[in-house]
Amino acid sequence: MEDATEPLLLPGRPSPMLNQRPNRRSAFKGIDLQGVKKRGQGLRTWIRIDKSSGNTQTLLLDKFTMMRRCDLPARDLRLLDPLFVYPSTILGREKAIVVNLEQIRCIITSEEVFLLHSLDEYVQKYVMELERRLKTGRDGEDGIGGVEGPSTDFLEFLPFEFRALEVALEAACSILDAEAAELEIEAYPLLDELSTKINTTNLEGARKLKSRLVSLTRRVQKVRDEIEQLMNDDGDMAEMYLTGKKGKFETSSCDQNLEVSNKIYFDQFESKANSAPVSPVSSPPDCTMRNFEKSMSFARSRHGSARSSYASSDSENISELEMLLEAYFVLIDNTLNKLTSLKEYIDDTEDFINIKLDNIRNQLIQFELILTTLTLVVAIFGVIAGIFGMNFIVPFFENPSGFKSVLIISGISGTFIFLFFLLFYKHKGLMSL
């Protein structure tokens, strides 16, 4: 018997279509992940204004760089994002002041200002005004947009952050005051014309005018409330005094360095005193110790006087900031009073229009009442004509003067009935005759 052996059949490889796993990368194919990441970083163009020289510099910085440089959280930078609409806000942080006042969106530190770049004219005026004041060392007379702020003598010795904040408040007040003045110029002629001539065009113009007034009033009220909130909270005003906080931080770091150096020096002095042999000719260690303590007491007194000077300057600058905020509070309150007066004028015009329309409606009702009465009188003639139109033999119909008699009697009766209704309407006060 022939031993025939057949080769063993190995199991074939599974089909690649059966065990094919979905490629997760294919889901993101065609998407520019690098571009999405760059857009998420929030690259913005900032205008940097230096404190010492007053020069401006345009920088392209992302959100994380600004967060590290100004020590701010991401939610504060979100307030300055032009893609979002946030109300006016002034926030005092540890190392910066975040300002969002109308078109002025900036970060103020003790050494520089970062202003979000914009082509708005008031942003350019803010940069020019702050640069001019820093270079000349004194404030202008008219300010931005002709808005008169505090006096020059008062603002001359303010810290850098307060002067930058003052220019931002001046710009915001000038923006709102200019819009309020423009709204007044458009409003009063339109309302006067609407009072004399009520039509669809004038009513539509008044509706748009009122919507603009409500929006502007809300913005002015928000700025006013923000300034008032800062004035009523000493803690917020103290938080905005960045120069004082910087001085305190430097003083505390100097005190810590002084304590460390004193401890090291004292330890070295003790080790030398214990290791050195005692000689009757050498100077006693008490003299050296007294000199060391004298120098240390002088250094402590110097740092204590610096600390007290910073404390006194804090209270002075907080009071100066309060006076500064109070000055612009008066300006923004004046703008709010203008808008309030304009709103009252619009309300008075609406009341006048409603009264006028009610009067016209009453006249139409009276005219309709007269027409209804005349219809009743004419209906009497129709009843008489219907009676005489019946097919009955009546001797009065054969009289040649009968037709004239019927017309005369019907006319007199209708006139009498009409006058009776008119007197009745007048007696009841339904119609003024």
Short descriptors:
magnesium ion transmembrane transporter activity; 6 strands; disordered N terminus; six-stranded antiparallel beta sheet; coiled coil; single chain; transmembrane; ion transport; alpha+beta; transport; Lipocalin
Distance between the termini: 143 Å
Tell me about the largest β-sheet: 6 strands, antiparallel
Strand content: 5-15%
Structure classification: alpha+beta
Total count of strands: 6
Helix share of residues? Answer: 55-70%
The low-pLDDT segments are: 1-22, 24-28, 35-40, 276-289, 298-310
Tell me which CATH architecture of the domain at 37-222 applies here. Beta Barrel
Tally of helical runs: 11
- Per CATH, the class of the domain at 37-222 reads Mainly Beta
Q: Helix and strand succession?
A: HEEHHEEEEHHHHHHHH
Tell me the radius of gyration: 45 Å
Coarse shape: rod-shaped
CATH third-tier fold name of the domain at 37-222: Lipocalin
In round numbers, the mean pLDDT is 77
Q: How are the strands ordered across the major sheet?
A: 2-1-6-5-4-3
Function: Magnesium transporter that may mediate the influx of magnesium.
Protein name: Magnesium transporter
InterPro entries: CorA_TM1_TM2 (IPR045863), MRS2-like (IPR039204)
Family: Belongs to the CorA metal ion transporter (MIT) (TC 1.A.35.5) family.
What's the layout of helices and strands?
Blueprint: H1 33-41, E1 44-50, E2 56-61, H2 63-70, H3 74-78, E3 89-92, E4 97-101, E5 104-108, E6 112-116, H4 121-136, H5 152-155, H6 160-196, H7 200-232, H8 234-239, H9 242-275, H10 285-388, H11 402-427
Antiparallel strand pairs: 1-2, 1-6, 3-4, 4-5, 5-6
Helix pairs in contact: 4-6, 6-7, 6-10, 7-10, 9-10, 10-11
